[in-house]
Design goal:
Layout lengths: L1 H8 L2 H4 L2 E5 L5 H6 L1 H8 L1 H7 L7 E4 L14 H12 L2 E5 L3 H4 L3 H14 L2 E3 L4 E2 L4 H34 L11 E3 L5 E3 L3 H17 L2 H10 L4 E4 L9 E4 L3 H9 L7 E3 L2 E4 L13 E4 L7 E3 L9 H13 L23 E3 L7 E5 L4 E5 L2 H6 L6 E3 L1 H14 L4 H43 L5 H27 L10 H10 L3 H5 L6 H11 E9 L2 E8 L4 E7 L4 H4 L12 H8 L17 H4 L1 H14 L21 H15 L11 H20 L1
Parallel strand pairs: 1-2, 1-3, 3-4, 14-18
Antiparallel strand pairs: 4-5, 6-7, 8-9, 10-13, 11-12, 15-16, 16-17, 18-19, 19-20
Helix pairs in contact: 6-8, 8-9, 10-11, 10-16, 16-17, 25-26
């Protein structure tokens, strides 16, 4: 009965076109392991031949193997199939079941619409369907909806099982370096002592420097390596030592597993597209904030740090960010500005920036965010050396009761950290020595007459010995930490010196980074407000206590410039101008060679000429106005006096006050015409 109904739907015009067999499995694991399903799908070639298609008209599309059917994105075979059906080249589409073609109703109904328009049949393992017929299309639509619902049911069951196991702390996933599963399946510390010490050293260095990049710099400076354990495959559990990267440090610091907490749900999958995003088959994964983690089991297994230390590290990493500078202080830098990152503007409340002048010798605090973001005026700019000195004086005064405790704790931390670095080197040498001993035992165990094997083992033994020698030589060449070289007398001297913390603070061996870290432990922020000739400094401590200071403001250069005294002579002003000019030899002087224009000389040469002219100009700056109606010296008319001034200034190479913007040639022409007019007036 089924064959009779199928033969009635298959017409000769269908047989004249292609019969496309679509083969697909969702994952590469299914392709590799579920070979029975693959065989059944390829057997549809025989089914198409039995229905009347020739071998030349049968085409298999299997390029979507390992692709999910939840979307058509990334499935080139399915897209080609839809295009061929739309062109009318396909007479029938064969698939093992509807879910092989699409598990999305949108893709499935689009294919049915095109098949109905081009009179293309759909054939599965159960029958032949004509999308143009109402009953067949209703049945195909129901199958497509069930296929999509089946995907939802499978996902819900799997996700529910994962959540149940995660709530019990039994869901296994890849662990970070330093943690492994024991034979029972519990999370324990890595039994390798070198791995444990490397992980502990990362947390110790971050506690000291409060910067992930500083941890990477320390590892690189000390030539230390960090372990990586392979996950899965032929090299499963193999340990590899390589250079530490910034990304690895951030992953370690952000992982709550090192605090002994079992956490599930730190990331969330999002398949819905936002405006402007490129579609993805597997959607997008983003990290959730800590308060949105669904499952958090504290003290579920051994850890390297406590939960409180983990929370403190997260706050420190968040504070180190430079994004939204008004909310974060940023990491401690190496510059001489001691208030970097904690200084606020008293006008707008934003964080002030730092600017260095004169090759870093002059420190300036500047609030320029309004100018850089809104093109507004800069709030305030001030020199920072006096401000730093005042804040440091308050800081040292506040820390006096804890001088001894601070110094002793710092000394203990330095000693412990130096021991950790030295132990890490010892573990590397010990591991290399073990590999060399293992190679030696392999070489001794082989038959000496079997030279083919003995030569290879001997070469491996020599390589391991060379590696041991290289590590020992590098360890000896590295500078030893000063804390490991201190004698008992030197330690007692340091303890006595602890009572004089200002001397340690101002010592040349104390870096700016260490000073800034000490200040940030006590000071939360510093607010600056410029008020006339005084700068108000408000220090807010970590205990929310406030300390107010007022320091004198540095004067600007124009404020320090001496002002000229007003001229008390009115009639003698012209005489003063004439006295300041160089004596004229004669009216008929030889004009000097004209200067090139400022555009030809360039900006630097013009500035140099102006400075030279200002330095040699003997002309005073009278405060009284020089009106031509004032009486002039006897026997000198207005035109002749002006001509004499211009001629003497040109002879001395000085620019005219009223014609300074003109070129030198035009200026000399003016002088000649005025001089001629002066001679006529004098003769008259």
């Amino acid at each position: 009965m089924l064959n009779r109904a199928a033969s009635q739907k298959i017409r000769p015009d269908h047989l004249d076109r292609l019969a496309v067999i679509y083969v697909r499995q969702s994952t590469l694991f299914q392709v590799r392991e579920n070979t029975g399903s693959t065989t059944r799908q390829y057997d549809l070639v025989k089914r198409a031949a039995d229905l009347g298609w020739t071998q030349a008209s049968i085409q298999v599309v299997d390029q979507d193997q390992g692709q999910s059917g939840s979307s058509s994105i990334g499935r080139d075979g399915f897209q080609w199939l839809v295009a061929e059906v739309g062109l009318g080249h396909v007479g029938a589409v064969l698939s093992l079941e509807v879910s092989r073609l699409a598990r999305s109703c949108s893709d499935w109904y689009r294919l049915l619409e095109i098949c109905a328009l081009t009179d293309t049949l759909v054939i599965d393992d159960e029958g032949v369907y004509d999308p143009g017929a109402h009953n067949d299309r209703l049945l195909l639509g129901f199958k497509g909806s069930m296929s999509e619902a089946e995907l939802h049911w499978l996902k819900s069951r799997l996700q529910g099982g994962k959540m149940t196991k995660a709530e019990q702390g039994q869901l296994r996933f890849r662990l970070p370096i330093g943690l492994v599963y024991d034979p029972v399946g519990r999370i324990v510390l890595d039994p390798d002592e070198a791995v444990q010490e490397a992980v502990r050293l990362v947390f110790s260095l971050f506690e000291q420097s409060t910067s992930a990049l500083a941890v990477v710099s320390t590892f690189a400076r000390q030539h230390l390596r960090f372990p990586t354990r392979w996950w899965g495959g032929k090299r499963a559990d193999e340990l590899i030592w390589s250079r530490l990267s910034h990304e690895r440090v951030l992953n370690i610091l952000h992982s709550p597993l090192y605090a002994g907490a079992y956490v599930y749900g730190r990331t969330k999958f999002r398949s819905r597209l936002l405006p402007g995003e490129e579609p993805r088959v597997k959607g997008r994964t983003r990290r959730l904030p800590q308060e949105d983690w669904p499952i958090v089991l504290l003290d579920a297994h051994p850890g390297y740090i406590t939960w409180e230390q983990f929370l403190h590290n997260q706050r420190q990493l968040d504070d180190n960010r430079t994004w939204r500078a008004e909310e974060h202080r940023g990491a401690v830098r190496e510059g001489p500005s001691l208030l970097q990152g904690i200084i606020l503007c008293g006008s707008c409340g934003r964080r002030m920036g730092i600017r260095y002048q004169r090759n870093g010798s002059v420190l300036m605090y500047e609030c320029h965010q309004l100018h850089s973001q809104l093109a507004a005026r800069t709030c305030q700019t001030m020199r920072g050396d006096r401000i730093d000195q005042a804040v440091v004086a308050c800081f040292l005064e506040a820390i006096k009761p804890a001088h001894l405790e601070v110094a002793l704790s710092a000394l203990d931390q330095v000693e412990g950290r130096a021991r950790q670095v030295d132990h890490q080197w010892q573990r590397q040498i010990e591991r290399a020595q073990y590999e060399a001993d293992l190679a030696r035992r392999r070489y001794k165990a082989v038959d000496p007459d079997n030279r083919l094997v003995a030569r290879s083992l001997e070469r491996e033994w020599n390589e391991k010995l060379a590696e041991v020698e290289k590590l020992e030589r590098e360890h000896q060449l590295l500078p030893k930490p000063a804390a490991l070289l201190l004698t008992t007398a030197q330690r007692e001297q340091i303890r006595r010196l602890a009572h004089d913390l200002p001397a340690i603070w101002h010592a040349s061996t104390t870096t700016f980074v260490e000073r800034k870290q000490l200040m940030r432990w006590l000071i939360k922020d510093v607010t600056l407000s410029k008020r006339g000739n005084v700068i108000d400094v408000a220090i807010r401590w970590q205990t929310e206590a406030l300390t107010a200071l007022s320091i004198p403001r540095y004067k600007m250069s124009w404020e320090r410039r001496p002002r000229s005294r007003p001229c008390s002579m009115k009639r003698g002003c012209v005489q003063g101008w004439e006295a300041a000019l160089p004596p004229a030899k004669s009216i008929g002087f030889v004009l000097p060679t004209p200067f090139p224009s400022p555009a030809q000389r360039g900006r630097d040469s013009v500035r140099a000429d102006n400075e030279a002219m200002d330095a040699t100009r003997p002309l005073p700056q009278p405060n009284c106005s020089m009106s031509m109606s004032r009486p002039l010296p006897i026997g000198v008319t207005r035109g002749f006096w002006r001509a004499s001034v211009l001629i003497r200034m040109a002879h001395a190479g000085l620019p005219s006050l009223q014609t300074s913007s003109r070129s030198c040639a035009s200026r000399l022409n003016d002088i000649g015409s005025v001089a001629e007019l002066a001679r006529r007036e004098k003769t008259w």
